[in-house]
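Workshop exercise sheet. Pairs work together: one partner reads the sequence aloud, the other fills in the structure field after running the prediction. Swap roles for the next sheet.
Pair: D.N. / O.F.
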Amino acid sequence: MVKREVMSRYKGSFLGILWSLVNPILMLAIYTFVFGIVFKVRLDLNNSLYDDKAAFALVLFAGLIVYNLFNECISRAPRLILSNVNYVKKIIFPLEILPWVTLGAALFHAGISYLVLLTFLLILGHALHWTLIFMPIVVLPLLLLIMGLSWLLSSIGVFVRDIGQFIGLILTMMLFLSPIFYPASALPESVRDYLFLNPLTFIIEQTRAIILTGSLPNWVGLTVYYLIAVFIAWTGLLWFEKTRKGFADVL
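Structure field:
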């Protein structure tokens, strides 16, 4: 189902699956041109040796990969059951796997984007940091959080159709309230702590740390994030299983 989800997005196009590679390459090139050459944004990456023209594009792209992964799954969650009514009518079909399908497709595109980012680093002549091995550990709690929210929102979306519009506004707010276009360190300390109430902030900062600066993950922060993510995932699944009995009647 994940394969079909990915392939259906490019069905009928001339380049086909190659668009999953072309899109992030073009976006990274655009970011580099606009922010590095047009606006000439300079950013201190903790005394890194990156060229100023490419530094902001790398930071921006790394943050957007995390946001796009979250956005693709959560934005589709409210209509996930509504768009798969045929599965609801099949009693033996495990509806709880539908969010996994969306997550699998989103992970495929995120993986391609990460490869583009790492390739771009090599092209610029920078060695890849060994801390890259921690990437799965850093991303996993975000995936658990996404699954919990997806189960919750897909269930609520069956009964409250307006939830999709509301989530769209929330995701737009999260884009600008996440340290994507700016590092968290650029904010005053009095405001910085509130930024971490956004679940994307910590993962974005950790992703940049292990990829761009070669820093070790914040193990204490990851542990707390894991505990919260597991709780939300478990709660979301319980809610989904509790309410799924009414899906067929409502639809």
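Discussion prompt: The chain has a mean pLDDT of 85. What would you look at next?
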